[in-house]
Structure formats: C-alpha cells, structure tokens
Amino acid sequence: MLHKRLLAILAFQVVGVFFPAHAQSASPIALNVYVGGQQRPDIMRDLFAQYTALHPGIKISLEVGGATSELSQKYLNMVLTAKDSTLDIFLIDIIRPAQFAAARWAEPLDSYLGSEHEAYLSRFLPAYREATTVGGKVIALPALADSLFLYYRKDLLAKYGELPPATWPELARVAKKIQQGEADPNLQGLSFQGKAVEGAVCTFLLPYWSLGGEIIRDGKTSFERGKAEAGLNMWRKMVSDGVAKKNSAEVGTDDTRKEFQAGRVVFGVIWGYAWNHFQSGADTRVKDKVGVIKLPAMPGGKSVSCMGGWNWAVSAYGKHKAESVALVRWLASPEVSKQLALKGSFHPVFPSVYKDPEVLAAAPWFADALPVVETARPRPVTPMYRAISDALRINTNTVMAGVKTPQQALDEIEQRVARALR
Amino acid sequence: MNNFFTAKRLRWVAAAIVLLNGFFPAVWILFTSLKNEVELTAKPITYWPQNPVLSNYVAAFRDQPLPGYLLNSVIVACLSMLLALFISTLAAYAIARLNLKRRNLILTGIIAVSMFPLVTLMVPLFEIMRGLNLLNSYTALVLPYTVLNLPICTLILVSFFQDIPRDIENAAMIDGCTRLGALWHVVMPLAAPGVFTAGILAFVNAWDEFLLSMSMNAAVAYRTLPVGIQMYQGEFSFPWPTISAALVIALVPVVTVILIFQERVVSGLTSGGLKG
Amino acid sequence: MATRTLRDRLLDPGETALAWALLSPALLFIIVIVAYPVATLVINSFFDIRLSRGLPITFIGFDNYAAAFADSMFWRAVKNTLIITFVTVPGALVVGLGLAMLANMPFRFRGPIRLALLLPWALPLAFVGLIFAWFFHSEYGIINDLIRRFGGEPRIWFNSPGLTMMAICIATIWKTSSFMALILLAGLQTIPASLYEAAEVDGASKWTQFTEITLPLLVPSMLVALIFRTLTAIQSFDIPFSMPGPGEESQTLAMYIQLNTVDYLDLGYGSTLAVFMFMLSMATTFVYLRYVRGDKD
Q1: What is the signed CA dihedral for A110, A113, A118, A122, rounded to 10 degrees?
Q2: Cα–Cα distance for residue pair B48/A368, rounded to 1 Å
Q3: Disulfide check for C132: which of B57, B62, B276, C171 has CB 3.0–4.6 Å away?
C-alpha cells in the first residue's frame, strides 16, 4: 500500500516536472505584465514595487520579451492568437493599436474611464491620444513618446557660418559645403536609414508626408505616386551627390547613431535614444556639439516627423481586467511619465512634463525636443500595419540599393498595399 | 603523382584547409569578442585585437542570464535526446526485428516526418501546447524536438539492429530472456555505437533550434541559448562584441562535448549506421 | 529442436502485437506533433483566416491557392528556395567529400582535425547566419577587406540579390558540409584498405581509384545524407533570415510562410503556402526513394 502511494507521489512529481502548474492560488491578485527587453525592465520593476506598496492586494510579475518591437510582436501574435490568458497587460508599439483593436485583443478602456474620460485623455499629447484611439475606442494608454529628430553638429555649422536647414535641398547644400571644407572623405553629410528596418518606413514617409501625401485616408488607400516618387528621388539624390554614403541601403538605425557619435556625420535622422549616447557615451566625439531641430521639409512642403513610442494595453483575455486597468492608469500618469523621463530618459507623453523643472534639469534638451515631438505624425493606422510597413520599407531599401527604380518600387508598393487592405 | 600525394607537406596543406575551414569563424568571433566598439568599426578593419578587452564578457553575463540560457539548452537537448532515443529504439527494434508486414512502409512513414518543417507547424503546435498548458516549460520544446529527431534516430538504429546477428539474440532468449530483456541486455550493448551516434545527432539538432523555441518559451526562465543570444540586440542596437563574447561562451560546452566524444561519433557512424 | 521452437515463436502472432506496441509511442508522437497540425493546416488552407482583421472565418475553397499562383512574392520565394537547394546540396556534398578525404589522411593529431570537422555542425544555424552576415558586411566585414587587400573591388554584398544569394549559399554550404563530411568520413573508413592495395598493384591511378572504388562505395552513405540535406535545404530559414539582402529579394519559402502566418496573421494563406512546401518536400522524397529502390534492385 505504502509502496503504491510512494509510487503515486513519485509519478506526480515526475508529471510536475513536465507539466508545471501555471495557475497560482488566488489570495493576492497577480497581474502579469509584458514589456520588451529595450524598455528598461529594471525601471519597470521599480515602478511595480511602488504600486504594490500602495496596493497590497496586488502582485505584479514582469515578463521581459524580445528586445525589438518585431520580436515582441511575433510573441504577442502567437500568444494572443491562441487566446492565452497568462498576460494581463502589455506594452505595445505605437504602430500596433489598430491591429489589437481589430483582432479584439485589447480591452477597450472607455467604460473604465467613465465620466472623466475627456478630462483624463486631454492631458496627453494630442497625437498620442489619436494614435491610441481606434474607431472611437480607447485601445491603449500612451506610455513613452518618441520621434525622429534631425541631429546636427552645432560646431561644424557655426564654423561655416550656417544655420540649421529648413528644407532638404538646403540641408544638402550646407552638408556639401562642410564636407568640402573639412576635406575628410569619411565625413558624411547626412545619415539616414535605408536598410529594410522599420525606420525605413519613416524614411519613406518623411518627404511624402511633407508634401501632404497619405497612405490611408478615411479607411481607403490614397497612394499618391508623384509625391512618393519625389521623396524617393530626394533620398537617391542625397546618395548620388555624395551627401549620404554609397551603401545607405545598409544603414540601420544604430549605424547612424554610431557614426554620428564617432564624429563622422554632419546631419543625422534618428530617434531620441541617440541623444544620451552622443552626450555621455563612453567614446563619444560629439559631446556638447549636438543640436536637435525639426526635420527639414520638402520644397513647398511642411516639416513633419515620424512618431514613435509605446502604449499600455490591457489584454481582452486577462482574468483581472479592472485591476489591470487601474494599474495601467497609474502607469500612464504624469507622475510615472516624469519618473520614466528622469530614470530612463524616455520622452514624456504629457506636454506638462517636458516643462517640469526637474525633468529639464536632468535633460535640458527636452526643451528643444518638444516642438519636434509635436510635429510627429503616426504611421498609417491599420490592422494590417505590418504588411504596409513591409511594402514601404522593403521598396525604400531596394531603391536605395539601386535594385529597383522608383517606378518599379512604387508599382510594388501599390500592389502590396492593395493586397494587404483587400 | 603518387609521390605528390603521399608527400608530408600535402598532409600539412590538407590539415591547414580543414582547420581553417572549421575554426576560422569561431576564431573570428573570439577576436571580435576582445575588441571594443570603436575598434570594431575602425577603417580599415583590424584582425588581431589591438587593445584586447574583457569587458564584453562581463557585459555578456551582466546583460542577460547567460548561464540560465545554457542550462535550459542543455536540459532541453538532453531530455529530448533521451526521449528520442527511447522511442526510436523501440520503433527501430520493431521494424528491424519483429514480425511486421510493410515494415518499409512504416519506416518511410517515420522518415516522412522530416518533410514537415517545424516552421510551418508552429501555429497549430502553439495551440496544442497552450491547450495542454505547456507554454513556457521544457516539455513544450522536448516533445517537438523528440519528433524532429525520430526519423534520423530510427533510421540509424534500424540499420544497426539489422547488422546484429539474430543468433546472439536467440541465444539470450533460449537462456530465458524475454524479447525486451534481450533487446535491453544483448542488442543495446552491441548497438551502442549507433545509439551513441543517434543520440549526439539528436542532441545537436535540439541544441540548434531557434524559431520554435522563441515562440513556445518566450519567458526568460525557459529561454534556450539561440533565442537568448538574440536578446542582446536592442531595438536599434546590435552589440557585436557582446554577442560575440556570448557566442564564444556558448561554444565552450559544445567544444567540450565534441572533444570528449569525437572518436565515438565517427566510429558510430562507421560501424553500421547510415548505410541507406 | 531449439531453433524450431524459436521459429515458432518468431511466427507467433503475439510478436506482431509486440511490434505495434513498440511502435505506438513513436506513432502517438507523430500523430500529435505532426499529423494533427498538418491536417489543421490543410483544412485552414481552404479558409479566409485573417486574424488581425477580426473578421469571421469563411470557407473560400481554392481561393488561397489561386492567390498563391498569382502572387509574385510566392514565386520568388519558391525560386530562391530552389536556388538554395540546387546550389547548396551538391555544394555541401562536394565540399563535404573534400573535407572528408582530407580528414581521412593519416594524421598524428586527429583531435583538432575532428573538432574542426564537427564545429560548424554544432554551431546553431542562427549563429552561423549572424556570423556570416558580419563577414560579408560591406564596411566591417573580412570578405571585403580581403578583396581590397588582393586589389579587387569591394562589393556591397547585401545590396544585390545575386550577391546576397551567393553569400547565403556560401554560409549554408559551410554549415552543412561538415555534417556531410562526417557521414562521408564514416563511409570512407568502412572501405577496406585491401581494395586500394589491389588497385595499386593493378597500376590504377589515384583518380581511377577515387572514381572506381571510393565513389561507388560511398553512394549509400551519400544518399541518406542527401535526402536529409535536401529536405532541410527546402526548409531553409535561419541563415537567409539572418542575412537579408535588399528588400525581400532573397526571401525563402519558409520565411514567406513565417511572415504570412506569424507576422501578418493570415493563417489561411500561410497554411496554403505550407501545403505547397509539403508538396515540394514530398516530390523530392519520392524522387530519392525511386532512386534508392532502383539502385537496390
């Protein structure tokens, strides 16, 4: 008898090795939060500790995923396709809310916000509020802001008596003058992303938007070939004139950062994370020589930037939605935004925080950053974003590589956008 | 011609080619792991590290739980190897020895498993594992990897079993052994090289796998090495020196295993395995 | 006496039952992990399942198949997959044979040679892709540096679809030739030395010995290695994925399936593409099996 029972216990333990129990006992409510590896899990854990100190009935665990937006999304796609309930909250890229809304993966937050709905949402930067509202429903709450900036070498521009340019041709002229003056074959006038990374979507969109082009207008494709072609030709000219380097099709986001940091670039188009590297990176050669300004416009166009950032969404399959929403509301508060700015130099999603003296003391450049962030526009809002993104970035890359003419690339973009939105 | 072929220096050339081909990438990442980021992007590129630094190794351990990834990979690879060996030994014995109609058809059927890559089966597999509440567990990888290895293991073991004279087995059974007793006490020891070869193939295949592992076990506690190495890259950054350091560390156990078992791998393949 | 009873026992129907019992774990695993998912995929291929749109799942017959035939990206992926297969399978065989013969020479220190032979095989595919992508980087890669040192014109490898495919094939051959070499080395060592000695006496040249003795006796080992190598070549994913060329010019079928299924969440179309891959694999296996059988008769 005893023998049998021992055997049963042993078998149970063996089974336990293979089938670990996920469900935990109920007493404190356990919330599982997913963030990507790049969003400073250490800071997130610290925030959660603060929250659980305020709310003893809540336990928060953190699941740290892939360090890129795409790796994270691959995982969330798998988990949510399977309607998995283990994640309660996830931090999603600014380009995702439409997909999460259409697939009904994110719990709409309107009913939880109740009467203070308007007052609550009006505090966010307007573009972020828009990007997280899909079909009239609040799908996520903005967490971290970002945008493309034009970084420039203050010292070099001053040396040649030039002001920061307002248009792309102006930029090319200034860059050329400095390149010739410095007589350094390794000095690039401009560095931008021509590699088929997500950043290349913005490379495509910057001049296109500047001319007033849209990919999707009122839910329908509204692709304007002329404007797209002008944009691609502008970039190609940068390469053929020697302003940008020949292998621009190989340049990813961090390549721009590294080369600017090594003092080999006059103008760099890149996200906000680069600033800290330029100012305090171990081997920076551009400390205190960098300025940021709005992105140049196309001739006759306006200045626009590409919006980045991350949002908190609550899983539609989660088991503790009310508690999750409460946590998310706390995480998307000006106080937390300020902490994120101070500890991780993340751009705040509240205009008020940019003007906070403490924040400005820690990151004086936020004063220059706010006007740029305010010109930032969300990339096409559609549940099929990934397919649109691929169409744009891949064809931008093939044009930069010289494999396709702009005409061929535009044909393929049109074809793929149409298929994605069928 | 003959003199030329037997010349000692030709052997040296041959050795140089084989060594260069096998070691060069590993040596290159070893060098890379000792360079800092500035040296890495220097023009022209440097071969030998100019100012060797160990900081990348420190970073490799600091930025990610590398020992944990290693352990997970070892556990998953070992468990799936053992399970694949167990299951394919039984199947191979049935196919090679027992009274079975259409044994070739059954063997072909098992080998046919290789036609369905895990990449394509990922979504249904994910749903199965979720249904069994197995996501983020060793089992979620051990089960698919076991199946991944069934064809090659079964094939190797079948040809080994066929090479073992039936008389030896029969003698054991006359002495009172059951069929399975004979399999365990007589056939298996004789087929040891084959079992060994099949095992190491299974181990390496499981050690290799990336995509399924990334999907099934995204949680850090169950991440395997190929997935873990990808985690060093950031949204925008690709820290080559740190990744190289992690790769070098990841190579150490593999090199150790090979150095210990290399003779047996080759002799296992030699004495009977994989003969079609 | 004893043999008779044994023969009786061998013919005992109980043995067939035992055989099936021994096969059952393997079959169970195959059913759960392979057959059931494959069946799901085949069924899904007849439906419109685009999860990210949140629309109801609808039966659409062969529409996904028709879409694949009209999809230039699908054909490009098939073309790339076939190129990789037709280049890297024979490539790995030739290089592997070379390595095996070199390694089969009488060396005093076998350890390092064996390690050199086994190392590429034990290096995970994902790492190989990363490492070779770095080798071929136009500015920081060693390949261009060597070209420059020998006075050639450095190339921007990943700007050109052709050069990218070349780089992918080189990386794949490097990675896979080592396993090939391993199997062929094992085959070489089973060839009795007496055959060569006899040929030597007959005055056969080394080349004749190679074509008349070595190659024919290696054929069985080669065939098995080739079947598995071809199937994995058709499934190429990790290396091309880590070495992207311009746009998606070097996308393989496995990558396109993964893109449609996991990234676009178009499960219907992704399943259809998977079915095409199964058919490609089955056709290949069929050809090999015909050859193997024909060879044995």
Answers
A1: -100
A2: 43
A3: C171
Which one-letter amino acid corresponds to residue B167? D
* Residue A185: how many other CB atoms lie within 10 Å: 8
Q: Which residues contact C2 (CB under 8 A, 6 or more apart)?
A: B174
Residues of chain A contacting C51 with CB distance shorter than 8 Å: 81, 103
A376 touches chain C (CB under 8 A): no
Q: How far apart are CA C128 and CA A420, in angstroms?
A: 33
Three-state SS for A416? helix
Cα–Cα distance list, B235 to A40, A63, A93, A312, A385 (Å): 12, 17, 11, 18, 18
Check if the beta carbon of residue B65 is closer than 8 Å to that of residue B249.
Answer: no
Is residue C254 within 8 A of residue C235, CB to CB? The reply is: yes
Which residues 6+ apart lie within 8 Å of B9 measured at CB? none
Residues 6+ apart with CB under 8 A from A5: none
Q: Which amino acid is at C154?
A: P
Read off the CATH number of the domain in which B109 is found: 1.10.3720.10
Q: Which residues are A137's β-sheet partners?
A: A134
Kindly give, in sequence order, each residue whose CB lies less than 8 Å from that of residue C223, ignoring residues fewer than 6 positions away: B276, C288, C291, C292, C295
Owner of token pair 């009006």: A122
Q: Does the residue B49 lie in any domain?
A: no
**pTM: predicted TM-score of the whole model, two decimal places:** 0.84
Residue B41 lies in a domain: no
Query: For A294, phi and psi rounded to 5 degrees?
Result: -55, 155
pLDDT by position in tens, chain B (length 276)? 455 555 677 778 888 888 888 899 999 999 999 988 778 777 778 888 888 889 899 988 888 889 999 999 999 999 999 999 999 999 999 998 887 888 888 988 898 888 888 888 988 898 888 888 888 889 999 999 999 999 989 988 888 888 888 888 888 888 877 878 888 888 888 888 788 888 888 988 898 888 888 888 877 788 899 888 888 877 777 788 889 999 999 888 878 877 777 666 666 665 544 443
A308 touches A148 (CB < 8 A): yes
In degrees, rounded to 5, the angle at the alpha carbon of residue A70 between the alpha carbons of residues A65 and A75 is 45
Domains for chain C: give ranges and CATH numbers: 47-296 (1.10.3720.10)
Asked if A395 is an interface residue toward chain C (Cβ–Cβ < 8 A), one would say: yes
Task: State CA C224 to chain mean position distance.
Answer: 12
Q: What is the 3-state secondary structure (H, E, C) of A221-279?
A: ECCCHHHHHHHHHHHHHHHHCCCCCCCHHHCCHHHHHHHHHCCCEEEEEECCCHHHHHH
Query: Is A383 in contact with A389 (CB distance < 8 Å)?
Result: no
Domain count, chain B: 1
Which run of H or of E encompasses C179? helix C161-190
Asked whether residue B30 is assigned to any structural domain, the reply reads no
Instruction: Dig out the tokens for A315 from the structure.
Output: 């899983």
Residues from chain A that touch B50, judged by Cβ atoms under 8 A, are none
Task: Tell me, yes or no, whether B48 lies in a domain.
Answer: no
Is residue A211 a contact partner of residue A298, using CB atoms and an 8 Å limit? yes
The dihedral built from the CA positions of residue A123, A129, A135 and A139, taken in this order, carries a sign that is: negative
CB contacts < 8 A, A to B, total: 82
CB nearest to C138's CB, from A247, A394, A420? A247
Q: How many angstroms separate the Cα of C212 from the Cα of each of A83, B113, C150?
A: 61, 35, 40
Domains of chain A, first to last: 8-146+308-377 (3.40.190.10), 147-306+382-420 (3.40.190.10)
Which domain covers residue B219, as residue numbers? 63-270
CB-based contact B258 C115, cutoff 8 Å: yes
Q: What is the pairing mode between strands A216-217 and A137-138?
A: unpaired
**Residue A71 touches chain B, beta carbons under 8 Å:** yes
